[in-house]
Amino acid sequence: MSVNTNSLQLSDYLEKLPGTTFKRLYQQPSTAFAIFRRMLPHLAKTIVMAMLYMPTPFLISDLEIWVKPNSKRQKDQALATLRSLHIIQSAGPQSMTLTTNFRNSLRLALEGGGDHHSFGVPSTLPVPADVDLGFLDRYARKKWDDILHYVVNSVEYSDMREKDTGGGGPKASVKELLIAGRLVEKRSVATISITQAGFTFLLQEANSQVWTLLLLWLEAADANVERAGMDSVDMLSFLFLLASLELGRGYSTDALTEPRRNMLPYLVDFGLIYIPPHDHQQYFPTRLATTLTSSESSLRSVSAGFLAASEGGISDAGDKNAIILETNFRVYAYTSSPLQIAVLALFCELKMRFRELVSGKLSRQSIRKAVDMGITSDQIISYLATHAHEQMHRLAAAQKKPLLPPVIVDQIRLWQLDTERMSVCPGFLFKDFESVREYEDMANFAGEIGVLKWRNDRKGMFFTNKVEQIKDFMKNRRKAEQ
Amino acid sequence: MVRAVRGVLVECDPAIKSIIVNINSENNEYIIEDLDDSHLVVQENKVQQLKFLLDKRLKDTIMEPERDSDSDRDVKD
To answer: Which residue intervals define the domain Transcription factor Tfb2 C-terminal in the entry (chain A) (predicted)?
Structure first.
């Protein structure tokens, strides 16, 4: 399944947008294509492809024939996703079509042709000799690592504030964004400290981190349109355009509209594009940009990049595997990377630090502290698993045992359960129905589109985490009754 | 007429629920609807405060296990 955590964030953002915004977004073939590629589950893609060249509206009864009865739930969820992204619309009571803009744009994207410049205009100028794939990767990594360093150095961890922060950190605009997005907090004039959201951000995969930051940026632009002079819809479609560009190729800045040219300096600050200092006529997307809408991972995981960076460049997959976890809750990490040590310090009691080795211990207190900061036990476990030392892999393979000692994994989970006395879910409680039938219809509908969290048939109440589609359903239902 | 009430669904075990009900009974400002043994709907803006009070109650009533001693210590101190 290509739909993972970062597209969830993006989909939350998209779902909040009004239908008119989607109409504008879908004017660009690159956007329609990116949304199709990135945001849809497989079944939804299949339905879209089937409908793409259909001359007449698609009968819902026909779709039902295609889908096995026991997969009705998946079908309904796929349709709900398509509706919330304004990809399909009803063409009558029992049929649906693709929205016009989306259909035309996706056709254009697949067939090629058209004069829309939606996939960027390659520059005809010669590519500077020093700009190659390796250079772009190093450049993007450096930029992004600066940002991560800034976030992690805000952890109150005095011996971490070392000289190897490298190059003064990110630009002021990026810092402002991190503060506005509450990834870090200003405690006093000079000191900042990381927040819960910041920790979650650190533990994410690079691609999700980029999206988190970009969405913060879009929201910031939305909040003060006059000052920034940027339109978030246009910005978003430009990001989708970037995602469709080819790595290592120069694109012409002249072909861009004025507002988009104004975005370039910010994108340079994020490390999404590179503009040669002596030549402002062309820009080069980096791997951070070109992997925005694909599910393949971009540069590297959090700490791997740091190890690679501190060891002077080209990343080597072997580097990142540094952690040994023993059955007595002790943790040893062969690393001297400030970031990796800081991340470990989030959920470990670090006891000793040597050159290239830190050792510590997992304890109830340390896990609780991490959970209180918003890190989940699964995040901790997966961090330990992805960064396990190769000796751990070897031992596990030889003894045919799981990679991490099960006793530790269970204990971490139990420690978290200990702190979670209650789970919360914001949403809406529906009650006071006029009839049992009305209640059942609506509760069943909520269940089918996957927003139902709790129901009690005896009390005639149910709880959902989203309300928009239920409102529509209620309206239609009332209309049908009249 | 159907009503949709904004709130936060809280899921917890019955013991915790009775503590929440007890907290609420002081001035009745948290719970919107008592659903069943393990579910409640509470005011959206009061959740953090409720969590804090719950943690406080639990700290007062539950004995935290002693910090386990480090028998095979690496350093002598």
So the answer is: 410-475
